[in-house]
Design goal:
By secondary structure, this protein is an alpha+beta fold. Helix content is 58%, strand content 19%. α1 crosses α2 and α6 runs antiparallel to α7. The protein binds ligand 0O2.
Length: 227
């Protein structure tokens, strides 16, 4: 209900000059679209849960530590479209935004990330739209993760609709780094001097956590080679 109220408040802003019926219709359409995104997100989450079960039989351990899902709020959707000077409409959301529905998969080891990504994209109902490998090519600040944009069909009463979902796969160490980095810089006006100093420290931390990932993977290989 709280979410619905936010959507209504946001829509009121863009509903200037519209009749009450038109506004009601818009709210209902946005709610429908968000429900479709939520369904697509749940489908992807379930696919990863199924893979986790199956792969745990093969490897005798779970490749997935945790799965997080999030649906972008209508406020963030509107802000993002406005920042890009794009129209705020249902068509524009579907056409221009890839990350309304997001699934984050936290993995035990780096090679689990690639194994899970491969297992997902080879499923015949999944269309891979885009892959960004920030593990092999980290961002300048040290950010690492594998990003996929996929399309998945959701089956409605009378139609099949493809919805986009952003999937982020990362290790526990990458997740810790990204969460702390996000918390440090989020909504903060840092001076140039401070930005340079923190950039150096954050980069060092990213390198250390990557080394930790590589070492843990090596330790696992040694143990699994012995058993
Ligand atoms: P939130 O709240 O997590 O959704 P896009 O705007 O997504 O279409 P872009 O910038 O090419 O285009 O996307 P990219 O590089 O694939 O990154 C999108 C998301 O990855 C971000 O979403 C973050 O979740 C995460 N991310 C990317 N770079 C960084 C980074 O440097 N630090 C951290 N902590 N996270 C990062 P949002 O929309 O920014 O935020």
């Amino acid at each position: 209900m709280e979410n619905e109220k936010t959507i209504k408040e946001q829509l009121d802003e863009i509903a200037f000059n519209r009749t009450e019926d038109e506004i009601r219709e818009m709210i209902s359409s946005v709610n429908h679209l968000m429900t479709y995104y939520r369904c697509a997100m749940l489908e992807i989450e379930t696919k990863f849960k199924v893979l986790n079960e199956q792969l745990s039989l093969r490897h005798e351990r779970n490749p997935i530590e945790n799965i997080k899902t999030r649906l972008k709020s209508f406020g963030s959707i509107k802000d993002k479209l406005e920042r890009r000077e794009l129209p705020v409409s249902l068509e524009s959301i579907e056409e221009n935004l890839n990350d309304v529905a997001g699934v984050r998969v936290i993995c035990s080891f780096i090679d689990d990330i690639y194994m899970l990504a491969e297992c997902l994209v080879q499923q015949d109902d999944i269309k891979l739209i885009e892959m960004k490998d920030y593990i092999k090519n980290p961002k300048e600040n040290g950010y690492r993760s594998l990003h996929l944009i996929v399309e998945i069909p959701i089956f409605l009463c009378d139609e099949k609709k493809y919805m986009k979902v952003e999937v982020q796969l990362r290790t526990i160490a990458m997740e810790v780094w990204a969460n702390l980095e996000h918390r440090l810089r989020y909504k903060k006006e840092l001076s140039d001097d401070l930005l340079i100093k923190t950039a150096y420290e954050l980069n060092e931390c990213a390198d250390l956590s990557h080394r930790l990932d590589l070492k843990m993977q090596k330790a696992r290989d040694i143990i699994e080679g012995e058993t």
